[in-house]
Amino acid sequence: MAHQAIEEYLGRRLDVISEQGKTYSDFISDLQNVIEQPLTNSRRHPYISHELLDEFLKSVSSVKAELTDRNQKYSKRLTDDEILSRIINLFEEKVGEPFSDTKLIDHYKEADKRYKDKIPPGFEDIKKEGNRKYGDYILWLQIIDISLASGKNIVFVSDDEKKDWILSHKGKKIGLLPELRKEFNILTGKKIHIYNASQFLDFAGKTLGTQVPEEAIKDVKSFQTESRPILEADLIWESSGRSNQGFSQKNRERFGDEPIMAGSPLIVFWKLDWYFKFTLHNNSSFPAYNIKIEHNSDVLFSFSNGLPTINNLAPFANLELEARTHFFIEGDNTGADNLIHERIPKHLNGLQIKISYKDESRKEYVTLVEINNGEITNEQIK
User: Fold this and answer.
1) Could you tell me which of 281, 295, 279, 300 has the C-alpha nearest to residue 368?
2) For residue 11, which of 61, 62, 72, 338 sits 20 to 30 Å off, Cα-Cα?
3) C-alpha to C-alpha distances, 65 to 34, 53, 201, 316, nearest whole angstrom
4) 3-state SS of the chain: helix, strand, coil percent to 5?
5) Which residue range(s) make up the domain with 147?
6) pLDDT per residue over 279-310, tens digit each?
7) Would residue 206 count as lying in a domain?
8) Which of 71, 62, 85, 68 is nearest to 13 (CA)?
9) Nearest-5° Cα angle at 157, 218 to 106
10) Where residue 328 sits, what CATH number does that domain have?
11) C-alpha–C-alpha distance, residues 381 and 224, integer Å
């Protein structure tokens, strides 16, 4: 194992354990403050039968008990970590040597030059603080050294999918960047293959003739899915209205030059407006960073307030934006009123909103929000 890999694991281990413990504590607190307390205050909640309320509160209490138990077991890993013990036993005397301070300084200078020219790997981490931004490049150099020392090809197992490591095409991961494969071959005369954890288990089982339990592969895939921020969105109607933009020439065709009686259904150019809350939910225990929102421009839809350039969304937190849409029609006030009573108007059918965001390692994810027939769907496409 490259020394940089174990160094980053040990450097982040305590923070990750503490963050997960805080997530458990925050969720338990939310259960108490948002659900349990309001329901036990008979003056504040809508009427619920005592039998149903008791059954529901027992379920909430069971959830709290399980979360508390899991939190206590998880927190014990700060001082008694069985996963760390297994890693130490597995990789004892199998970890490469670190670079000297002198070599590190030289490598940092070289990394700065490469990052400036967008030469992989590592330039996606340029905004990280201090020497952390050089981590991927140092890892790359140490992998090359391992190949040179052993005279062997390398299998690199990583769930990193940033564009300074992985080649993608139309959302599909192809593999290690060709320029990295080329550099590795030039420097070592060998080949390098990259797999994520679940791919490696599957490939290793087939290649070595070893039966890898299907449950183990499922667990890894589940962890890969769960160990990431998951953003989803709601579009919540707030208000709608119509405004007169002028009278239609069709009134002359309908009424001629005769006086128009009061209450006659005049044909008007109406502007119809809808106002919404666009709410982002982080439905995970991992923070999301650098959130960006885009939508297809052929649909009349806009945000009144945008996201700040630097932003993040904490675990299980929400973020609200103001959104609006409008539509023009030619008709009487009855037709206009019928349309503005639609909470999600038909002209928003086909609206696609792309939400991109990153995790702490700057791996990018994408949620696609679509509106069809008044229904909103969220799909994690990356």
Assistant:
1) 295
2) 72
3) 17, 18, 35, 20
4) 45, 25, 30
5) 101-195
6) 999 888 788 999 999 987 677 898 988 888 77
7) no
8) 85
9) 150
10) 2.60.40
11) 14
